């Protein structure tokens, strides 16, 4: 009796992987074994970097707040310490946005802290 293989499902599975690796460089896009490995690794990176992205953005916000605070003669730690002491409930994302796009509003916050 011949071996039974589910060719329809196998082809669909391969097609799905090949679709996900479309646009990659070299053999990663058109050779099954290389594409499968590239796709698995890509998904691992995607999972890891969804967490890393949060760290990177927080670091960016801190740098922006620090730069803006120093323009007004205050360090980042000093600024955030006074923000918490005065119970101003604005998170770092919003503070960084104000520092970049609304310098007058950020200056008003600094003046309120002094």
In short:
The protein has 114 residues and is mainly alpha-helical. The protein is built from 5 helices and no strands. The radius of gyration is 25 Å and the shape is rod-shaped.
Structure description:
The structure is a single chain. The model has no long low-confidence stretch (mean pLDDT 94). It is built from five helices and no strands. The protein is rod-shaped and about 85 Å long. The longest helix has 40 residues, at 32-71. With 114 residues, the chain is mainly α. Helix 1 (7-20) packs parallel to helix 2 (32-71), helix 2 (32-71) packs across helix 4 (92-101) and helix 4 (92-101) crosses helix 5 (103-113).
General form? rod-shaped
Total tally of structural domains: 1
Beta percentage is under 5%
Number of DSSP-assigned strands: 0
Order of helices and strands: HHHHH
Unreliable stretches covering 5 or more consecutive residues: none
In the CATH hierarchy, the architecture is Orthogonal Bundle
- The CATH first-level class comes to Mainly Alpha
Pairing-aware structural class of the strands and helices? Answer: mainly alpha
Helices, by number, come to 5
Distance between the termini: 87 Å
Mean pLDDT value: 94
CATH homology-level superfamily: Ribosomal protein L20, C-terminal domain
Topology-level CATH name: c-terminal domain of poly(a) binding protein
Q: Provide the gyration radius in Å.
A: 25 Å
Helix content: over 70%
